[in-house]
Amino acid sequence: MRLLVKISVFFAFVVIVLGAFTRLTEAGLGCPDWPGCYGFMKVPSQEEHIQQAELRFPDAPVEHAKAWNEMVHRYFAGTLGLLILAIAIIAWVKSRRYSHYPTPVKLPTLLLGLVIFQAALGMWTVTMNLQPLIVMGHLLGGFSVISLLYLLSLRLSSYRLAGGDPELRRYRGLAFFTLLVVIAQIALGGWVAANYAAVACTELPFCEGDWTSQLDFSGAFSIPEADTYQYGAHDYNDRMTMHVMHRVGAIITFLVVCALLFKCWRKAKSHFFRRSLLVIGLLLSLQILLGISNVVFQLPLWNAVAHNATGALLLLSLVALNYNLSRKA
Ligand code: HEM
């Protein structure tokens, strides 16, 4: 089961990266239906199938590259769903057969429920034409799945620091608060991405022109009526406000994470904790650099994919720190 969970963490990471790639190549609606693609289980390629597809969906001509991006994401996500199902079944069976050897059951069951909900969000992403709340929810769902899988993998591994570090345990509250701040920042990033607000503010450190008088907070967190949300439905002021919120969030996140790292570093005695603090610091710096490059270079594809992937890794590094701070054995 331990190996299966580790493989699933890796798979979840691949699914997250493929999800970002799909969105950024504007392939979110590459297949207008779900779970198939134009009614087929793979992208239609033969002439006769393409004709059938275009008869079924006259408003959505087949674009092979986009459709394949979307389908590869779905195949990997489907495989991840099966892996999580297998983990849940193994956990249930083990906990019944070997009651003297405790096997986590609640976490695998929660994961199974979450991955089913995540599949539903994937479907609504398509059927509701990229509604931003659904797109952001799908991003957060993916990050939740990988976090819980990683937590399960930590629970199944033996602790490398027997007894933990009692000096550091006092920072559990701060570590948990930092985790919540990072989750909020990820949600803001998801909102910017889902509303195509990345290029709504092109200067640093803040936006061009008289941006302060154009801020519109209620507009930024509303959802306008629209037939499709591809390429965004908000006006400039709303998008610029979303973008500014994510930048302010980045400053707050930076300060809170640095405070945690600074306090823990002074008390940490083991290499184990020092290494994990270093990893968090490196991921935070990389994430901020990638965020700034998103703005300076106007959202290059691989930069934006890397910003998403590093966000996931930063989250995992904080999940691990939180878990290890409270772990005793
Ligand atoms: C700790 C800091 C940060 C975290 C955790 C974070 C996280 C995220 C996440 C998860 C996304 C959504 C990615 C996606 O859906 O593909 C995002 C989007 C974005 N972030 Fe950040 N971010 C951080 C800092 C920054 C900074 C400092 C900037 C710029 C100054 C920035 C600029 C952007 C932009 C422009 C997007 C939209 C990208 C797109 O449309 O794909 N981020 N961020």
UniProtKB/TrEMBL annotation:
> Its topology with respect to the membrane?
Multi-pass membrane protein
GO MF annotations, alphabetized:
metal ion binding; oxidoreductase activity
User: What's the chief localization of this chain?
Assistant: membrane
InterPro entries linked to this entry: COX15/CtaA_fam, COX15/CtaA_HemeA_synthase
Functional pathway: Porphyrin-containing compound metabolism
Q: Where in the cell is it found?
A: Membrane
Name of protein: Cytochrome B
Q: Which domain of life is it from?
A: Bacteria
The keyword Disulfide bond is annotated on this UniProt entry: yes
Q: Which residues form the signal peptide?
A: none
Q: Which GO terms describe its cellular component?
A: membrane
- Tell me yes or no: is Protein biosynthesis among this UniProt entry's keywords: no
Question: Mind listing the GO biological process terms from this record?
Answer: heme A biosynthetic process
The portions of this protein that span the membrane are: 75-93, 105-127, 133-152, 173-194, 244-265, 277-299, 305-325
